[in-house]
Amino acid sequence: MADFKIDDTVDITTVVCPTTFVKAKVALEELDDGQILSIKMNDGEPVQNVPRSIKEEGHKILKLIDNEDGTYDLIVQKVGD
Amino acid sequence: MAFTDEQLERYSRHIILKEVGAKGQKKLLNAKVLIIGAGGLGAPAAMYLAAAGVGTIGIADADEVDLSNLQRQIIHTTQDVGKAKVLSAKETMEAINPDVKVNTYRTFIDSENIMDIIKDYDFVIDGTDNFPAKFLINDACVMAKKPFSHAGIIRFKGQLMTYVPGQGPCYRCVFKNPPPKDAVPTCKQAGVIGAMGGVIGSLQAMEAIKYILGVGDLLTGYLLTYDALKMEFRKVKLPQDTKGCAVCGEHPTITELIDYEQAECDGVHL
User: Fold this and answer.
1) Among residues 39-68 of chain A, which lie with CB inside 8 Å of chain B?
2) Chain centroid to CA B18: how far?
3) Which of A20, B120, B151, B251 has its Cβ near the most Cβ atoms within 10 Å?
4) CATH fold of the domain at A8-77
5) Domain spans in chain A, listed from the N-terminal domain onward
6) What is the side-by-side strand order in the sheet with B101-105?
7) pLDDT tens digits for A33-63?
């Protein structure tokens, strides 16, 4: 994580699809172009779908970090405003 | 304004849309739409706008709910018969979505009150059932520079058009004056299939939502007609020259609002 300057974080481990993506999307909308968001999500369905949906919105996936506790941190750079 | 978790869930299907997102949903929550007539057109329009989270909805109607309304005015229930339509409509909208603030105007609109009622709203929906009201709403919206959606329904047919100041013809550009009294039957005389209000009123709600979001193409400069029996929609391009119009033209001859006389048996909103 030290590779990136994280501007904001959002935890979507307590919600299920589609609120997972909705929470991540809302957090991204709050950021400016080029800023970086770290999204904490559960293994399984969220890791399968959320990164793909974020990519479809045009944002840049920088890294997916396995926290080895059943959760991941997805590092996303916002593209556009 | 941050969304609560409940709002994120309620509006999730909106926020997911690229054309809406959190920003668009906030625009809806901050928007003010006035619906004139809590009848066949106004009922579905009000319900969809409330569900969508349009933050302030005004509803104007002087009538009480009548048993004969319930075949199409789905915002009212059997228990509401006898109740003021604006109150019944307010209760349904608030039950659908507590985020919505509903302002009620228990009055028939006329040349005296319309300017004051429309002034605080971003968009107006004409859900009335008579020509005097339709021309009054058009002229008032032109004068106050308010965008509005016109619609009318009768039997198995419906039509609508959208007016945005400076972006095409108004209702009066197309239909110069009301038809002679009793020349055109009202839906009370002629009947109307209930679901027609659902089709056309929902399209009016859609126009309001697109206007608020600033997405897509509005029905400005066009009249959309729907014939349910033939199952035909037609999008008719209207003359774009508005210069000679008596109200929105370059040299308007109508500079004050007019209260046209109602047909004898009118007065019940679609």
Assistant:
1) 57
2) 26
3) B151
4) Translation Initiation Factor IF3 (3.30.110)
5) 8-77
6) B101-105, B56-60, B32-36, B123-126, B148-154, B157-163, B222-227, B232-237
7) 999 999 999 999 999 999 999 999 999 999 9
